[in-house]
Amino acid sequence: MEEQTQQHRHLPGGPVRSGIPEHGRIPKYYAVKALIADLLDELGEGGALPTERDLAERYAVSRETVRQALRELLLEGRLRRAGRGTVVAGPKLEQPLSLASYTEGVRRQGRRPGRNLIGLERFPCPDGLAAGIGAQAGEPVWHLERVLLADDERVGLESTYIRVARAPRLDVDFQPDSSFYGYLRDDLAIAFGEADEKLETVLATPREALLIGTPPALPMLLIHRFSRDGQGRPLERVRSLYRGDRFSFTTRLRPE
User: Fold this and answer.
1) Between 101 and which of 20, 181, 202, 246 could a Cys-Cys bridge form, CB atoms 3.0 to 4.6 Å apart?
2) What is the pTM of this model?
3) What share of the chain is helix, strand, coil (3-state, %, to 5)?
């Protein structure tokens, strides 16, 4: 009875029966992963994790078993690399699915937002992009690409496309490390109306992984956004790539 009670204990939001299948057999690495997860709670955020060798000796398993457990904990965002070691990661950033800027979302959680400019280029609008931003094929458009930061940690990559006619002095007046939405609102008096978003899970390309500073195998959360202004006219297209180990997204659902 006690064993059954233990099996059915789980934290709210956690896997039922701690992820143990009905036949009761679990992979050895998963059992070690659960033990290491308990250790992380004891160490607390920023605590240094023992070496793979020390963990293998502690739990009487091979280093490869420990390595597989650590890989999953890294992918889940429970751990992060720090120099040549590994430390306990803090909670994930919660970003609302709303017409708010990345800057506003990060600040609400007491973190310091930032962006590093990768490039700002002007080019003729291709056919596939034109309708989404209300442009004519061939007319000038801006492409703004920036790495997203939270407390100087690289956490994502953002690409924004907008007609040059909507922001003609973007390359002169806009500060690349500031909020683009703030610039449109405060400097250009452009009000946002509504947007369509699509969220999916992807793997970063080699270039994207290098810019964000993550392994190519790390799952990413990709958001495509098509925004319209207050008059309902197409305004911008945004492609935002977020680290799956550092971000979660929230929204409030209402009946239609």
Assistant:
1) 181
2) 0.72
3) 30, 35, 35
